[in-house]
Amino acid sequence: MRKKKLAQWQKNMYALWLGNFATGAGSSMSLPFLPLFVSTLGNFPKWELTLYAGLAFSSTFLSQAIVSPLWGKLADRTGRKPMLLRAAIGMTITATLTGFSTNVWMLIGLRLIQGGFSGYINNAYALIASEVPREYSGKTMGTLTTGAVGGQLVGPIFGGIIAGALGYRIPFFLFGALMFIATLVTLFGVKENFVPVEDDGTQTNHSAFVGIKNIHIVWAMFISSMLIQAATNSINPIISLFVRQLMKNQGNVAFASGIVAALPGIATLLAAPRLGQLSDHIGAQKVLVAGLVLSGVLFFPMYFVQTVVVLGVLRFLVGIADAALMPVTQTVMSLNTPPSSVSRIFSYNQSFQAIGSVIGPMLASSVAGILDYRYVFIMTTCLVLINLGVVIWAFRKDRK
Questions:
Q1: For residues 38 and 303, is the Cβ–Cβ distance under 8 A?
Q2: Which residues form a coiled coil (predicted)?
């Protein structure tokens, strides 16, 4: 029997899956124990350590939030592939240099620069969203998400093993190597038939929101993406410090932190394609609301955990909720956005995600420094409830 030939968008999806995997693995290799690396760069009290850890984590997303709309506008003029290559090459260089950091401000500065060149995964979403047939949108976005999530799954585990054996700097060098691989995969594996929009002076070329069917839905997805990232990333600056507290500073804290950080990725990897396919059948709205409800139910009990095992189990279950969140918001936006402005809309969404990735960690660092690590989970639960309210309001307005 003759094998069916893959369409170009499918070939691009597989190539970008590999690029997303490399990006997810590399970027997550050092994040779970970034606070431990910061602690080796000086003798800091607890409040100062959590502050610097929050700054080191969120600085990348701060610059990302500022420059993403500019890159998105350029992508709609030049194509998404050049932006993918720009991100991959930029992160190859900055990630490698980060491994040579000699003090905490050099670390923060390099991560700030890295954010200016990041955006590989977001541009991968934009490229596929502009090509995939609408009836396959949910499943395809879910599958593409498993690339990044799969990388974020193996990254902390291998990063924890490597950091425990060879030191905290080596994962940054591996990050650079993985982004070099992503560069090659994108260069040779992705083909984009991009037709630039002619600049005729009309409003369409100046506003990304012209032609959007339900603008309040798109704005709700922006806010939802921001709050999802804030909730998801709030634990990152304190995860290794909290695990160290639970383990009473005994054993391989870096490895245990890596496992705890990776567990949501396992669940998301398994659930994302299925939930994406489910959203194609029953509607993205129901899947998104269910994911937010499940998130709130799971984050609150983390306040009471006494062992790393219980924390890990709850984090695993949170991964199932995550699979119903970010891919579905991407699907909703792609279904409501015309191809001529998809890159700009997705870049604005990336800015909101980046803002969330700044707000969450900085709030968590403040809460942990003033109160205790456990209160971070109460804060995260509140963010999820706010998100749920925004989404329900937008969908009710859409029905009316």
A1: no
A2: none
Residues 12-35: pLDDT tens digits? 889 999 999 999 899 888 777 788
Sign of CA dihedral 369, 372, 377, 381: negative
191's tokens: 């083909």
Surface-to-core class of residue 248, CB atoms within 10 Å of its CB (0-12 exposed, 13-18 middle, 19+ buried): exposed
* Burial class for 49, CB neighbours closer than 10 Å (0-12, 13-18, 19+): buried
- CA Rg value for the chain: 20
* DSSP string covering 122-181: HHHHHHHHTTS-GGGHHHHHHHHHHHHHHHHHHHHHHHHHHHHHH-SSHHHHHHHHHHHH
Question: Can you list the domains of the chain with their CATH numbers?
Answer: 8-192+211-399 (1.20.1250.20)
What amino acid occupies position 169? R
Query: Which residue's entry shows tokens 């991959």?
Result: 88
Give the separation between CA 244 and CA 291, rounded to whole angstroms.
30
Is 45 exposed, middle or buried, given 0-12, 13-18 or 19+ CB atoms closer than 10 A? exposed
Chain-centre distance for alpha carbon 25: 12
pLDDT at 235 over 90: no
Q: In the numeric block, which tokens belong to residue 304? A: 């009471």
AA letter at 354: A
| Three-point CA angle 350, 25, 175, nearest 5° | 95
Task: Report yes or no on whether pTM surpasses 0.85.
Answer: no
Distance CA 286, CA 388 (A): 12
**Measured at the alpha carbon of residue 262, what is the angle toward residues 258 and 266, in degrees to the nearest 5?**
155
C-alpha to C-alpha distance for 377 and 315, rounded to whole angstroms = 11
- Check: CB of residue 98 under 8 Å from CB of residue 381: no
